[in-house]
Write a structure and sequence with these properties.
Blueprint lengths: L6 E3 L9 H10 L1 E5 L4 H11 L2 H5 L2 E4 L5 E7 L6 H7 L1 H11 L3 E11 L7 E4 L1 H5 L9 E7 L10 E4 L10 E4 L2 E4 L1 H10 L4 E3 L7 E5 L4 E3 L8 E10 L22 H5 L11 E2 L14
Parallel strand pairs: 1-2
Antiparallel strand pairs: 2-12, 3-4, 4-5, 4-15, 5-14, 6-13, 7-12, 7-14, 8-11, 8-13, 9-10
Length: 289
């Protein structure tokens, strides 16, 4: 299958942002890197994400339609395999090139959209939340790594290509989940100015996306789970102006890509600073007094 202009393939060598990659990032708000993680790296990552510690720290909120997706969030990358992924040059180093300056680890999370019960996520921008977290500029990005095969049937991520150019849009809480103002969203979708892209990914494929790009996902009605590992980064110069559940700037020590395979730490997760998601009543309930 031919690649789109936003898709690139990692050949296993050191990853550098090419002009084509940066042009797609600038124009579309995202790039897809196929085979970012090899099979061996995915197996090691799964061992951490499926661990007892991660599962014990997972929580979730209803999507308003009777479905629930669990997630586990942590603030520090740590020294385990998932931390090596978040600190690796092909992940963190690539984001640094795309954002044009020093970054730090904002948070990581695993989204557990299980078979037959996985919830939907409303159309939203990450900066729609992070604006309320004291981040003054949209100098932020996320890396979405498929842990399982992601398809339309099991609720893969959907994005509106180029929608980051609209800037931050007002978000409204419905229950505990925030989404774009429905009236504005209706105008956006009816305008037919943004291509809707279904991010159908194989395990190890990754999407790097800008914090202002509109994205959502449907419920999982299939018999196949859809888990994803997502790492969010912030520019060092965009240090939040007040304290929230997400961390303020701290130096991110990057590691070579080889550190993922060589790492044997699957269960020492004490340094990760897990966020107790059950204490958060909504996506905007983040300020710490």
């Amino acid at each position: 299958m031919a690649l789109t202009k936003a898709e690139f393939v990692h050949d296993g060598n050191e990853l550098h942002v090419t002009k084509s990659m940066f042009d797609s990032w600038r124009d579309n708000g995202y790039i897809i890197i196929r085979s970012l993680l090899c099979d061996r790296e995915i197996v090691k990552l799964k061992s951490v994400l499926e661990s007892k510690t991660v599962q014990e720290n997972a929580g979730g909120r209803d999507d308003g339609n009777g479905r629930k997706t669990k997630s586990c969030v942590w603030n520090q990358p740590g020294e385990d395999v998932s931390g090596m992924v978040a600190r690796s040059n092909k992940v963190a180093g690539t984001v640094e090139q795309l954002l044009g300056g020093e970054i730090y680890h904002y948070h990581s999370k695993v989204i557990m959209k299980d078979a037959l019960v996985g919830a939907s996520y409303r159309w939203h921008q990450d900066y729609g939340y992070w604006y309320h977290y004291g981040c003054l500029f949209p100098d932020m990005a996320s890396v979405f790594i498929a842990v399982d095969k992601a398809t339309k049937e099991n609720g893969c991520l959907q994005i509106l290509s180029g929608s980051h150019k609209m800037g931050r849009i007002e978000h409204i809480l419905t229950g505990g989940q925030a989404g774009v103002d429905p009236e504005r969203l209706d105008l956006i979708l009816k305008s037919d100015r943004f291509e809707k892209v279904y991010l159908e990914l194989e395990p190890g494929d990754a999407c790097y996306f800008h914090c202002n790009i509109l994205h959502s996902s449907a419920q999982n009605h299939s018999t196949q789970r859809r888990w994803a590992f997502i790492i969010a980064y912030n520019r060092a110069s965009n240090d939040p102006v007040f304290k929230t559940v997400d961390p303020q700037y701290s130096y991110l020590e990057k590691v070579p890509d080889s550190a993922i395979v060589s790492c044997t730490n699957f269960d020492d997760l004490e340094a990760k600073d897990f966020v107790v998601t059950s204490n958060l009543k909504s996506d905007f309930n983040v300020k710490v007094s």
